[in-house]
Amino acid sequence: MPELPEVETVRVTLENEIRNEIIVGLDLYYSKIIKNELEWFIYSITNQKIHRIDRMGKYLIFILDAYAMIIHLRMEGKFYIKTDEPIDKHEHVVFHFKSGRNLRYHDVRKFGTITLLNINTYLDEYPLIQLGREPKNLDFHHFFEMIKNKKTTIKQVLLDQHIVAGLGNIYVDETLFLSQIHPTRIASSITIKEAEIIIESARQVLEKAIELGGTTIRSYTSSLGVHGRFQNELNVHMKKGEPCPVCKTEIIKIKVGGRGTYVCPKCQH
DNA sequence: CCCGTGCCCTGGCGGC
DNA sequence: TGCCGCCAGGGCACGG
Fold first, then answer.
1. Which nucleotide is nearest to A109 (CA to C1')?
2. Tens-digit pLDDT profile for residues A1-42
3. A219 CB-to-strand B distance under 7 Å
4. CB of A29 closer than 8 Å to CB of A91
5. pLDDT digit string, tens, across residues A48-107
6. Which part of chain A is CATH 1.10.8.50?
7. What amino acid positions of A are annotated as catalytic residues?
8. In which order are the strands placed within the sheet that holds A23-28?
9. Domain A4-130: which topology?
10. Class assignment of domain A135-263?
């Protein structure tokens, strides 16, 4: 499941590969990925040039001539660049380029989304308009103000992209471990000092993960640009039954807000 | 407004 | 070995 560091890694790789390519055609094998009206989407994207690729939180943003194409990979979305290889069963959208190469959107679970918006207004439209700030741009006082009356758990708050952008299940578990805060803590019980520690921990975790190219787990191994090494740095996520790297207590797995959650029951309060 | 639940999807795994 | 049923999970719609 790509989170901010994995999406950033994909962004950099993809941009180097396909900057300045011109989209001349499109093949759709599973069109529900596209959130626009289909005929409009196909008509509009044809002959558009890819100038650069941006990222906000977990969203990739293809900057075209007149449009911005907003892509969310959700759990298993990934890209491949190919030429005339046969279509894979999980390749749902193929962008053909003038150069003869093509970009293929591959998604086993079909949860990903592609939305084409006007280049002049995309930041003021759904889905980006309601996106929170990334930890590196989020002042902890502001974060504290947003969560101080919330009755949900701190983990659910950190997963909420309207509040903080970019964190998913892996990096929330790691952030709360570094913060020594238990994921089931009610958000309104978090002190201003703890809010500062949480934001600082999230920055550290994300920065390190980006530096290492993200986390490579399970099905994400062969995705374009994602051969990350952050999985070697994980302290608690997917470590059920293993000793806590700090106190040696056994890491346990619990459910928080319906999500599998890994925690050191001794270090995190 | 706020929060919890169900839905979208399919590969993989546990159980028998 | 094979089949069935269930789970994971990001974000949104919906309902209380």
1. B9
2. 789 999 999 999 999 999 999 999 999 999 999 999 999 999
3. yes
4. yes
5. 999 999 999 999 999 999 999 999 999 999 999 999 999 999 999 999 999 999 999 999
6. 135-263
7. 2-3, 58, 259
8. A23-28, A91-97, A102-106, A78-82
9. N-terminal domain of MutM-like DNA repair proteins (3.20.190)
10. mainly alpha
